[in-house]
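Annual report, structural modelling task.

Input specification for the calcium ion complex:
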Amino acid sequence: MRILLVEDEPEMVSALRAALKRHDMVVDHAGSLLEAEGFTADSYDAILLDRQLPDGDGLSLVPKLRSAGNTTPVLMLTARGETSDKVDGLDMGADDYLTKPFAFEELLARLRALLRRPAPMQSQFIRAGDLVLDVGHREASIRGEPLSLPRRELLVLEALMRRTGRMVQRETLMEAVFGLDDEIQSNALDTHVSRLRRKLADAASGVTINGIRGVGYLLRETASA
Ligand code: CA
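The model returned the following structure:
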């Protein structure tokens, strides 16, 4: 998971960076609005955004991202506790806020909740082989023909297609498919994958799913004839 941390206080930066790393998150850091604009927000799973930055209100970044079609979840970190400030932030397109000081556990919980939130209805297409996935509308198609899949199979497919050609760890898939709170049958993931694999093969999708027992799965484009 990649996080963009936009924060200017050095102690806060190093504490957050260390804590997020311990939870296997990759952290990039910007210390000002100007620096933050230099990062490609698309490549992050979430943005942690301080409001009081040396060159202005961090919140001003959010409308710019949203108007550019970027939907990366934004969690505001704010020293201001006034309700009006929180409402302003949410109105301007931030997804959630935390008032400093906060417990790291709470930050993590909020991050997880944001990452589980469904993507807004916006078309974003991922392609592999003859398969196209419209992520926003949760629809798969093969050469223009809709491929009807149950929700969990679509989630498996999305997680694999986002990393086509690379092994995706079981834990990553479990989290993508079941979230952190659901009760999970140990073999449920494999069941979803094997159903999905069969449907992809039947539909001559141009992709195959390979697995390594206990490790994960990988979606590959098959060589075209
Ligand atoms: Ca600050």
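The two ends are 36 Å apart (CA to CA).
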